[in-house]
Amino acid sequence: MIETFVIGAGPSGLTAAYILAKNGHDVVVCEKDPVYVGGISRTVNYKNFLFDIGGHRFFSKSREIVDLWNEILPDDFIDRPRLSRIYYQNKFYAYPLKAFEALANLGLWESTRCMASFGFAKLSPIKAPRTFHQWVRNQFGERLFSIFFKTYTEKVWGMSCDAISSDWAAQRIKGLSLGAAIIDGLSRSLGLGKGKKANGAKSLIESFRYPRRGPGMMWEAARDKIRGYGGKVLMGREVTGLTFDENRKVWTIAVRDAEGRSESFEALNVISSAPIRELMSNLKPTPLSLFQARALQYRDFLTVVLMGKSSVDLPDNWVYIHDPSVKVGRVQNFRSWSPEMIPDGVSTCLGLEYFCFEGDGLWNESDASLIELAKQEITKIGLMRAQDVADAAVVRQVKAYPVYDDDYARNVEVIRGEIALRYPGLHLVGRNGMHKYNNQDHAMMTGWLTALNIMAGKTVHDVWQVNEDAEYGEAGFSGAQQALGGLRDVPRKVA
Asked: How would you label 142-177 residue by residue, b for 16+ Cβ within 10 Å and e otherwise?
């Protein structure tokens, strides 16, 4: 019998396991991947080129999360300048925007239309906006929505902005308004505002910390420390069944390894960062909310990595591709994340991200076809020439983003209610575990607070109040006391 069984070795699961193991609690982590920990925050190694799956800035408003990063990985962070741009209609825009550059690129007439559209939206806002389109239109105006939000967002989600819930916009763009963007853009254009405080909107930060060999360093170190404290991290294991014994109040977890061998564990608590749809399908007794779980949708993506000696100087960390003439949605420049991710220190290594659904046409394309497409599109955009590409690789990522459609919130609410009533000791954490599009630091906080609940033997913290830009972030646990309803007994340090 173990105290806590953790499904998934991503940021939330490993954080929970680390806090528990460090404080002397018995914990086992089960990870489906046979090689990598970190989930979508892992670092893939291909011929000593290192790839970050999605790009992970280490920036948080929570002092405790920053301290935890330093504790787990004390000597391996580097400070990196943030430099990103938007590509739209054959022109590049600094992101965050520089006012004069944007004005020159758009032209006086288009800029005037954008400001008029913004003014009209403020004078005639859509009441109670339900969709992403309506929310952004209210905040920025219809013209800016069509230029800087519509194409990229629909590439990411594979659905109309009118079918995406306004929840996603409110959480991902929270704290950023046109007024703030204009003021920030003017200050950047005039060379002002250096040394911006870290508590500004996340979209506007100018620098971030980053592990010198990618985010996977953090999670590999966390895995090793969990083992050092006596916990277990089992790789290449897939959970095939979760059965709750109502009489004994014990969970039995069925696991299958890469060779098809079966294992079984008993635990008092289960922490799951697995996609809710998968978790609920494995539960016994069969959930009444299985229909709602199966209705939850996910967006997948793949990265085509191009490597070679490029003649194009590219200082960006990443470039958002808002142009509808190409399929690629974003381009990562791994050398700008960290030079140590490039084995010779001089080659260019670009990751072209294509958003898709598992099993659709793009997902099912051969690696060779995807590489050819990426070479054509990177040449068209002008970030690298096809003839400069010496090698390439494709990395696929399933269930990268939980989809915020019209029904997701109701479905999750029903599932949460049933878990609370019928499955005590089952804790949901992280992005897919909670079906919440959160950042790495927020996912970690859900794992941390869940560990504290288990250590306390009761639900002290409402983990569901940790959202994508939660108020707790202003001051870590002290901020959590306000954001989570005046919680008490929140330790400043975990011993």
From this structure: bbbbbbbbbbbbbbbbbbebebbbbbbbbbbbeebe
